[in-house]
Amino acid sequence: MAQSLSATTGSEIERVTRLCRRLEFFVARPPLQVRPLSHGESNQSYYVKTAQAEYVLRCYPADLAVCRQQELRCQHAAAARGLAPAPLCLNNHYQVMLSDYISNGQPFDYQRHGHKALLATLAAFHQLSVQTAVLEPYDYLQQQLALLPRAIRPAPADLATLYRAVTQLANQPADKVLCHLDLHAGNLLWASQRLWLLDFEYSQQADSSLDLAALSLHFKLNETAEQLLISGYAAERGVAELTEVLQQKILPAKQLYSGFCWLWYLGLPNAQAQAAYWQQNMQQLAALQAT
User: Where are the alpha helices (DSSP H) in the chain?
Assistant: First the structure.
């Protein structure tokens, strides 16, 4: 589903192959080929080929505070609408999830592939009915801060910026939908002239502005492109008044999303550069709002 990693060691492939053979799913369909796919920050994914079909095996860490059953429900619902690969197996004992493999895919390119397919897919996903937790930004910030190593103490000024953004977002009309909350090019696969959503690890009910903020930030949209994103999304939802509401919410939503990313990277080893990038992004957005 993503490009292969050439630097993976033979011992890693052997370990994953042995893991596949322990899974009941592969008892009647033993793996013929295993190779790595591009690894994320917290998960590793592998291509697995059998005589019957091709699959993606995603290995996840045991200590990550994610509800895998919720993730599975979101991917099942998205797959039923043709928005995602079908999930086939979740095994919490071995900490793996198996899904269909989408062949000939490439990361979504906003300029080349265009925003129309992206907005149609996003609006369809947002309108899925799935039982999940509800993201409350203030509570989520507290959870992120609690997970930081004791030696790391974010600057009070930066935290004040985030708390202001929480208040500003709360003061606008809410639009709670099933959000993806990790919409970057690596989780958007373009294949066979259509878009597929990947990795539903953080998907839950949240304000739609957070997903739009993620797209604007990850694809570095200018103001004109951002306004087209908002109006196009409102049109796909069939709710014209959403345009004005989202225009009011997009700046605090971008600050919050940047802050979420900053705090997340702060808690990871060897991720200082990524943390600094998102912190600077958050500070620049706050300065823009102050002008």
Answer: 10-22, 68-80, 110-113, 115-126, 137-147, 156-170, 208-218, 223-237, 242-266, 272-290
Query: 131 and 220 share a domain?
Result: yes
> Is 4 part of a structural domain of the chain?
no
Residue in 61, 86, 108 with CA at minimum distance from that of residue 219:
108
**Confidence (pLDDT) at 68:** 92
CA–CA distance, 117 with 109 (Å, rounded to integer) = 11
Quote the CA–CA distance of 205 and 245 in Å, as a whole number.
18
Which residue segment(s) compose the domain that 263 sits in? 106-290
Inter-helix orientation angle 208-218/223-237, to 10°: 140
Q: What is the pTM of this model?
A: 0.93
**How many domains are there within the chain?**
2
**pLDDT tens column, 2-17:** 333 344 557 889 999 9
84, 100, 116 - which closes a domain: 100
Query: Tokens 């596949």, residue?
Result: 20
Q: Return the residue matching tokens 């939802």.
A: 237
How high is the mean pLDDT of the chain?
93
Question: What does the pLDDT look like over 231-253, one tens digit per residue?
Answer: 999 999 999 899 999 999 999 99
